[in-house]
């Protein structure tokens, strides 16, 4: 079953960077070891206390159980009536993935990945030591408290060309082969193009033991560890609609080893579209350049990002808050990078590209105080079309972008798909009635509106058999035209439920045809590998 929500689009949820601890007041030592159902972690404090609070509040601790008598864990703090200088917690793997939140503990077959910053205490320096038993490995071996750390079977670890890959035994070979080979190739490609030796041994961990609900997700920590997690039973034979993003998934996360770690991201929270868009677009270009995907697949990915950004920003003046979370971070971030790449290649006669921009940006960032949006935009061509996207009047934004892209060799056509007509029509009627969020579910039985008690006559989550006597799924464009005609005459739109009930929903606003651009012609993305 799938659900369509206004303003929401499927995206990889990716996090970048780990929080820095507060200034130290005392020290703590932390030890972790494998235990039935998870790991057991022991803290030893330099001085007795009756209360210690965890530094990070964005770690889910619902499945953390204090095993030290007389102590409790509540609201992110361990407390006791009597002073204590040692405590122990049994940590079970997190029960669900949460958008842009690092997993505290995840399974990798019979091993685990522990999030070091989640163990830090307020006002204390800390050293995390992993205690493997015979046959277990731990990665990384230094600075484990700064990010993800693996503790599990040694046999799951593979080293090649200065990089490491860990795979769960249950992961399908086709999946692990694609990701492993892409990861090793990404190290060579980005290392050559960005010309920087990583400060840590890069490590990729592949797990098919994610609790969900997201089908797949990835993130990177300052220990140089990338964790890719997959949920569900479809990964032995991934569906076609995820083939391209799956092929570039590991390339995206690998790019963060260069643009998100070992260098300060000034606008990481306020403008994540820069480092996320850089990683996603860099992954597309690198994947095309190495034959992982072809140019047609890359253009299809650019089409999706362009339309997603268009829906997010609309025709109103730029609002930076719209690009702080969700799929808009990636959609608009990719559009910005594509524009920058096209303009750079055109101005240099093809001798420079987006990787040259990022190399300049990252070299300066490492030598100074990091990089941000201002630094990036200073490297763009004068009068860049990025200004049309973000600075110009919203009403002229998309006509201006289309015109600028045309001068750079891009051709587009309006090609709404049946699902675009379906969504545009159903949302249009609901928008005139609903006071809260709107959406609908599609499954094998058809469509069920998600209207609760907030949508007037359409409330009650009705199951829809037809709209204006037309099937909304198989006759979506005809349904759209019928609703368009009814709304133009301020006539009610007639819904028939699967129970045979007829609902007449008022509509007195014009319904305009959806604009869904398809990139039909574009300069090749492939570029040099060195």
What would your notes on this structure say?
- The chain is an alpha+beta fold.
- It has 3 domains: 14-242, no CATH class; 263-410, no CATH class; 417-505, Pdz3 Domain (Roll).
- The chain has helices spanning 173-194, 243-259, 273-289, 295-313, 328-347, 354-367, 373-378, 385-390, 397-407, 418-431, 476-488, and strands at 2-5, 14-16, 26-35, 38-53, 64-66, 71-74, 77-91, 105-108, 111-115, 124-130, 136-139, 148-153, 157-160, 163-167, 203-207, 216-220, 225-230, 411-414, 439-443, 446-449, 463-467, 493-497, 502-505, 517-521.
- A 6-stranded antiparallel beta sheet has the order 1-19-20-21-22-23. A 6-stranded mixed beta sheet has the order 2-16-17-15-14-13, with helices on one face. Strands 3, 4, 5, 6, 7 and 10 form a 6-stranded mixed beta sheet that branches.
- Strand 22 (493-497) and strand 23 (502-505) form a beta hairpin.
- Helix 3 packs across helix 5 (328-347), helix 4 (295-313) crosses helix 5 (328-347) and helix 10 (418-431) runs parallel beside helix 11.
- Residues 1-24 have low confidence and may be disordered.
Strand runs, count: 24
Q: Treating each run of at least 4 consecutive H or I residues as one helix, how many helices?
A: 11
Q: Report how far apart the termini are.
A: 45 Å
- How is the largest sheet built, in terms of strand order? 1-19-20-21-22-23
- Rg is 26 Å
Oligomer: single chain
| Helix-and-strand structural type | alpha+beta
Summarize model confidence as the mean pLDDT.
Answer: 92
Major β-sheet profile: 6 strands, antiparallel
Shape: globular
Helix content: 25-40%
Strand content: 25-35%
* Poorly predicted regions: 1-24
């Amino acid at each position: 079953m799938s659900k369509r929500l206004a303003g929401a689009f499927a995206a990889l949820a990716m996090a970048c960077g780990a929080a820095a601890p507060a200034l130290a007041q005392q020290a703590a030592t932390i030890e972790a070891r494998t235990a039935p159902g998870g790991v057991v972690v022991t803290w030893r404090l330099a001085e007795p206390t009756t209360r210690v609070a965890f530094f990070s509040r964005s770690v889910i601790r619902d499945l953390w159980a204090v095993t030290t008598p007389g102590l409790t864990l509540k609201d992110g703090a361990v407390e006791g009536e009597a002073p204590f200088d040692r405590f122990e917690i049994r940590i079970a793997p997190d029960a669900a993935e949460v958008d842009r939140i690092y997993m505290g503990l995840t399974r990798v077959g019979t091993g685990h990945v522990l999030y070091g910053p989640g163990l830090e205490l307020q006002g204390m320096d800390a050293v995390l030591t992993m205690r493997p038993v015979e046959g277990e490995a731990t990665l990384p071996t230094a600075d484990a408290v700064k990010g993800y750390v693996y503790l599990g079977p040694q046999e799951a670890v593979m080293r090649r060309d200065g990089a490491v890959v860990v795979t769960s035994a249950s992961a399908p070979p086709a999946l692990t082969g694609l990701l492993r080979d892409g990861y090793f190739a990404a190290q060579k490609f980005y290392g050559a193009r960005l010309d920087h030796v990583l400060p840590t041994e890069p490590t990729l961990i592949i797990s098919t033991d994610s609790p969900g609900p997201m089908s797949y997700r990835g993130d990177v920590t300052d220990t140089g560890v990338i964790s890719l997690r997959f949920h569900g039973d479809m990964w032995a034979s991934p569906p076609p609609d995820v083939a391209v993003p799956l092929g570039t998934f590991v390339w995206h996360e690998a790019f963060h080893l260069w643009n998100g770690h070992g260098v300060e991201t000034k606008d990481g929270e306020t403008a994540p579209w820069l480092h996320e868009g850089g990683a996603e677009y860099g992954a597309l270009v690198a994947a095309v350049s190495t034959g992982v995907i072809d140019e047609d697949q890359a253009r299809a990915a650019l089409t999706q990002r362009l339309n997603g950004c268009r829906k997010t920003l609309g025709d109103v003046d730029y609002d930076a808050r719209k690009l702080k979370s969700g799929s808009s971070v990636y959609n608009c971030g990719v559009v910005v990078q594509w524009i920058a790449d096209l303009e750079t290649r055109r101005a240099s006669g093809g001798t420079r590209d987006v990787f040259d921009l990022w190399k300049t940006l990252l070299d300066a960032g490492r030598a100074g105080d990091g990089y941000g949006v201002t630094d990036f935009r200073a490297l763009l061509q004068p009068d860049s079309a990025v200004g049309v996207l973000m600075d110009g009047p919203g009403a002229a934004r998309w006509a201006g972008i289309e015109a600028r892209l045309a001068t750079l060799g891009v051709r587009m056509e309006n090609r709404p798909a049946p699902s675009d007509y379906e969504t545009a029509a159903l949302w249009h009627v609901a928008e005139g009635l609903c006071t809260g969020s709107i959406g609908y579910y599609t499954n094998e039985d058809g469509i069920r509106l998600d209207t609760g008690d907030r949508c007037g006559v359409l409330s009650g989550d009705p199951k829809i058999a037809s709209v204006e006597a037309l099937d909304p799924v198989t006759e979506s464009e005809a349904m759209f035209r019928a609703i368009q005609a009814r709304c133009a005459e301020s006539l009610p739109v007639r819904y028939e439920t699967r129970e045979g009930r007829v609902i007449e929903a008022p509509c007195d606003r014009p319904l305009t045809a959806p604009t869904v651009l398809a990139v039909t012609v574009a300069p090749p993305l492939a570029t040099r590998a060195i």
